[in-house]
Amino acid sequence: MKYLRLIWVNLARKKIRTALTVGSFAVALFLFGLLIAIRGAMNHGEEAARADRLVVINRASITRMLPISHNERLARIPGVKAVVHATWFGGVYKDERNSFPQYAVDPEGLRAVYPDYLVPEAQWSEFIRDRQGCIAGEVTARRFGWKVGDRIAIKGSYMTGVFEFNLRAIYTGARSDVDTTHFWFNYAYLAERYKGRVGWYVVRLADPGDAERVITTIDEEFANSAWETKTQTEGEFGNYFAKQLGDIELLVLAIGSVVFSTLLLVSGNTMAIALRERTGEIAVLKAVGFRDGQVLRLVLAESLVMAAAGGAVGIVAAKAACASLSGLFPGMVLYLPSGELAVGMVFALGIGLLGAGFPAHAAMRLRVADALGRV
Amino acid sequence: MVNANGAPNGKCLIRARNLDKSYQRGGEQLHVLQGLSLDVDRGGFLAFMGPSGSGKTTLLNLLGGLDVPTSGSISVAGDEITAMGRSQLTAWRARHVGFVFQMYNLIPVLTAYQNVELPLLLTSLGRSGRREHVETALELVGLPDRMNHYPRQLSGGQEQRVAIARAIVADPTLLLCDEPTGDLDRRSADEVMQLLGRLVDEHGKTILMVTHDPRAAERARTTLHLEKGTLVEAGRRAA
Amino acid sequence: MAIPFVYSLRSVRQRYASGAVAVLGIAGAVGVFVAMLALARGFSSTLTASASDANAIVLRAGATSEIYSSLSLEQVRIIQDAPGIARGKDGPLVSAEVVELATFSLKKRGTDANLQVRGVSARTLEVREHVRVARGRFFRPGLAELVVGSSVAKNYAGLDIGDTVKFGGGTWQVVGILDAGGSVFDSELWCDATVLNQVYKRPENLFESLTVRLRSPADLQKLRDTLTSDPRLTVTVERERDYYEKTSGTLTALLRTLGLLVAAVMGIGAVLAALNTMYSAVAARSREVATLRALGFGAASVVICFVFEALLIAASGGFLGCAAALPINGYTTEVMNWATVSHVAFAFRVTPGLIGAGIAFALVMGLLGGVPPALRAARRPVATALREL
After folding, report:
1. C135, C211 in Cβ contact below 8 A?
2. C381 shares a domain with C283
3. Does C387 contact B57 at a Cβ distance shorter than 8 Å?
4. Record: contact B101-C291, CB cut-off 8 A
5. What ipTM score was computed for the predicted complex, to two decimals?
6. Using an 8 Å Cβ cutoff, are C53 and C366 in contact?
7. B114: which chain C residues are within 8 Å (Cβ-Cβ)?
8. Closest Cα partner for C337 from C206, C193, C191, C183?
């Protein structure tokens, strides 16, 4: 476009105004990205769930434990490909504020049930060889500055004493929405303290379509025993925790939407004010022979450049913020799905067009002489 | 050097010496005033004329303390204003100078009364003292009944008269007018010039005026012509 | 004397369209700020309202929460005779307690939510003086009877006096409604600790916590010293208030962080809006400013004048934002307390302090948005600005 230079000159001339406009679009998109991420984190259990996994908990409550002997019986149930048991540890690392989820697990089972956690082969073999070995997710490892080989002391909460672990591996997620805040260690290390009890089981199905039958089979297997179970798909299970937040999620999203629209309004207005101040200039362009359409296109192109630049800055900032905020709270995985980001960007561009369109249109309709005199 | 009135030096109010004013524009040095010297006596009524860019307004701004010369000195009533700092200059303006502009420059959101009162806010006058001064000034310009009008409710000539009231309300040492009739029709312009003349004749004010309008310049006692930053000739009229 | 305030006031009014957006932006930021902090404050004050300075809670050493703790009957007997514990006419004022979770159906949404079922000693109402039976009667020891917190009765289906509920393998009769003064106990169901252990097939004579009434709040240290130096015990003693403050910590921190984060981002947006409004005001009025300067008003007066305008806009935004957030005061909502995995009902609390903080936040935004344009206005050379049309 041959007017590219003209657009650029205009943007560079009123630097403060351009910066304010770009900035307010950036802030709007940043917030939008953040809200998308928060909503994603709250529904994370559901979205990251895989259809081929079931969670088996004590029928009475998630806080009651199950005997380790269930492991073998679950593995024998037809349709079950692999089983892992996990037990909540809930210890305190240095300070109570440093909370992150910690579980005692059965290493082999973990690997068979969760292919979405990636651990380098060499580190994995180090981990299973060491009774005191542990694995941390990359987000948690980064948060505390841990490196493979570090010795980590964690104070027990419902188990008295301080326990030492050797960090043998750091895992990453196979996808961006995988929770990498967990901390796992070998159940064998504390088996005596757990007295043959585990927190819950996760079962991997051979065929996801088989879920309903396997759920019934499992719960019937343990019915009328001292240890009745409740089996759910991973999605239902994760969803349960999300639903517990209930109104809070709604509130945050409601507030967020109000704020986002206010910010867009602000951006559009910034643009409109800037343009209204330039009515005289537009008249001059028309006076020297630019046609209405050309001037309109010029002004709109300028606004789109600003909206797009601001939006891009906001999205990049939101990505950076998500990366650094991830893991601040247990179970919160912040990631930005590109589909939703595109929607945000479309909003920004739309507002850019509207913000510029109205005053530009008004300027078009002014007679040159009036506009020149109006300044 | 030009002595504008040729009057004895004891009456000299403004003494400007070797004024230079230049701006950097692009890579070029722009000399607006070059070695200009001028004496103005108390009670004088001076008009500066000259083509655009001759430095008239710049000279007026320098004499009014709105701008500082690149070199040279100005003293007004014994005060060396070219030696003053910014804030001193601001305070000096408030006490000694009244300005009248081509576009009147009334504050649109304030009434005529409030506009005229503005300079008095910088004095130690109390509310009733200010009221008295404002009323006197508005009476002098013939607009006592327009006190509570906003500028947009006044005609151009009335606006300029309010502006003159504002310029004289604090009884300044000198009055500087930049094209006071430039935006007015002929009748209003005559009224304004008549008013300025009366201020000099009856109230002993000193007025310096920049104008393009020969009819306005006629009213002045003295007309000075500027060209390319220097005074070229002193067109003198009998006082 | 400075430039008259009426000038600023009327100038703001004249350019109300551009000011309105800045007001809206600031109102938005303040509204979010107040609403989110009211949420966090409501939650933490509900939990701390449960606590009394004169009460202490004894847990197994190392346990951060009741659900991680356990105390045997022998330990309870040792503890209740320790010095510093108040005594009523029937003996020491202590309540050995067990907590369990049970799932109930919310009236409003029809979904299930966990509630804490607390097995308590018969003397618990003497220990917890701010809890009383509002309707019906207290449970009879040894029977599967329940007294439920007032918000439980209100928000959950089938939990009013006379109702029968099944959970934990037993059938329970609701006999009374508790009024716990808006504290966390209003979101709990109470029953006899011994019965709870039996129904849930838990080991007998095993408790999770012991809440004791101190003779005076100052006796805590004495009690702690005695208990922690006793070789038969491995326990921690905490003031009840500290305990509940800690259990509310994670969620309060989450809500507060979330709220401050969103408010801060919104605040940046609002500051940009204010900057924009003020810069355009300065640009549009540069000749007016030059005139004032020519009349002898100093640079400082000009700065004050524009900053005052920005503060005026900010204050209107602040009041608007607070007014918008005010109706949520007292609005009750439920949330899961992660420390106990159970639901707690609590009310938003918009306090005068919070309103004050909101207004202060608005004024800070006004300052940030007003000072740079004001400085620019004061810095412009008068002679050049006068010539601009």
Report:
1. no
2. yes
3. yes
4. yes
5. 0.86
6. no
7. 4, 6-7
8. C183
Chain B residues touching C291 at Cβ < 8 A: 99, 101, 105, 107
The mean-pLDDT minimum among A314-328, B89-103, C117-131 falls in A314-328
**Tokens describing residue C210:** 């012991």
Mean of pLDDT over chain A? 81
Q: Which of C309, C386, C388 would best serve as a mutation to test chain B binding (most B beta carbons within 10 A)?
A: C386
Amino acid at A151: R
Nearest CA-CA distance, residue C312 and chain B, Å: 17
Which option is the CATH number for B42-69+91-236: 3.30.70.20, 3.30.70.260, 3.40.50.300, 3.30.300.30?
3.40.50.300
Helix (H, G, I), strand (E, B) or coil at A70: helix
Indicate the residue among C198, C233, C268 that finishes a domain. Answer: C233
Q: How far is A25 from chain C (nearest CA, A)?
A: 9
Cα–chain center distance at C162: 33
Interchain contact C281–B (C-beta under 8 A): no
pLDDT beyond 80 at A64? no
Same-domain status, C229 and C257: no
CA–CA separation, C53 vs C49, rounded Å? Answer: 10
Domain boundary among C206, C233, C260: C233
How many other C-beta atoms can be found within 10 angstroms of the C-beta atom of residue C107? Answer: 12
The segment with the largest mean pLDDT, out of A276-280, A354-358, C270-274, is C270-274
Range of the domain at C196: 62-233
Q: How confident is the model at residue A168 (pLDDT cuts 50, 70, 90)?
A: very high
**Do C158 and C274 reside in the same domain of the chain?**
no
C25 in any annotated domain = yes
> For C345-374, what is each residue's pLDDT tens digit?
888 889 999 999 999 999 999 999 999 999
Note the pLDDT of residue B45: 94
Q: Are B7 and B180 in contact (CB under 8 A)?
A: no
**Same domain as C182, residue C159:** yes
Nearest CA distance, B8 vs chain C (angstrom): 31
User: Are B90 and C287 an interchain contact pair (Cβ–Cβ within 8 Å)?
Assistant: no
What is the band of A235 on the pLDDT scale with cuts at 50, 70, 90? confident
Would the CB atoms of A330 and C338 count as touching at under 8 Å?
yes
Q: Which residue has the higher pLDDT, B146 or A297?
A: B146
Total domains in the fold of chain C: 2
- With an 8 Å Cβ cutoff, are A259 and C113 in contact? no
Measure C364 CA to nearest chain B CA, in Å.
Answer: 27
- What pLDDT does residue B238 have? 35
Query: Does pTM top 0.80 for this prediction?
Result: no
